[in-house]
Amino acid sequence: MRLATLASARSERGVALMLVLWIIVVLGLIATGVAIQARESIAVASTARTRTVARYAAESGVQAASAALRDLLTKADTPERQVHVLRDLEDELQRWAVRGLGNARFQVVVTDLNARVDLNNSAETVLLGLFQQFTSEREAEALLNALLDWIDEDDEPLPGGAESSGYIANGSPFTPTNQPLQRLEELSRIRGFGDSITNLLAPYLTVWSDGPINVNTASEQVLAAVPEIGKFGAQALVAARRGGSVMTSKVAVYSELSERNPGAVSSQLPNITTVPRRILIVSRGWEAGQPLTHEIQAVLQLRGTRMVGEQHLSMRYWMERDR
């Protein structure tokens, strides 16, 4: 009887020990899970903080560049200084390099959008002039018509173009939006704009300009697309620019062009400008030591220089994304 009692007691102690061990294991698993969740929560909070810091750093870059541009516009009291406003801004941004605000950092670059052909606002003759530099005349006309069909509101396809029914019949996942392009990437959805021709054209295109081409900043290819300038006029303007000359007015441009080709140039020159009118500011912000960056693209409209009581700048577009 005593032996049976002792055996029973040992068995109960063994069971109790096993229960204790299982409880310890369960508590350990719970503690591990809590620790993992805590680390994940900390990581999420840290990422959110990093993203917030990066975003406000990028916004600070836009505001700082805008303030610098506004100051330069106010001081641009001669036609030549007005022409050089963007160059002066670029010089100032290079001096900034990377700027810091506590742990936040930002870097800014600017682009003259009037140095590119605008898919929405440039004259059809300018668009055609650019397309013809990279493909045949017939194909260039088809590309122009396809672009116009994509943008216009009617359902009548132009020669070489296509409306919604044509895209659907060809199994395209995209159909014309019947409105201006919002991003340059949309171009590849349009009939005829395959990767090859799109990649060739992209460096000379934008969708955020107001149309006129800046003869003081545009490339030779873009200048040659303007009918009033053409290939030889573009070469002459670029050569003059390399020699240190700037065109301070349309009269100066007309004089330069007509000297080389008398009687062939109209004095109106409706498709050009000598000063930047729309500027793209690209600002990237980040937190020191963190890989995540935030990018803001802001398009500013320049409304003139030294105009009392008028706003020098106005915001036209604002796009953001993490990178």
Describe the fold and architecture.
Helix 1 (2-75) packs antiparallel against helix 3 (85-96). With 323 residues, the protein is an alpha/beta fold. It has a five-stranded antiparallel beta sheet with strand order 1-2-7-8-9. Strands 3-4 form a two-stranded parallel sheet. A two-stranded parallel sheet has the order 5-6. The chain is 49% helix and 15% strand. The protein contains ten helices and nine strands. The model is unreliable at 306-310 (pLDDT under 50). A hairpin with a 2-residue loop joins strand 1 and strand 2. It has helices spanning 2-75, 79-83, 85-96, 124-131, 137-151, 164-169, 195-201, 220-225, 230-242, 250-260; strands at 99-101, 104-112, 117-118, 205-206, 213-214, 272-273, 278-287, 293-302, 313-322.
List strands and helices in order, with pairings.
Blueprint: H1 2-75, H2 79-83, H3 85-96, E1 99-101, E2 104-112, E3 117-118, H4 124-131, H5 137-151, H6 164-169, H7 195-201, E4 205-206, E5 213-214, H8 220-225, H9 230-242, H10 250-260, E6 272-273, E7 278-287, E8 293-302, E9 313-322
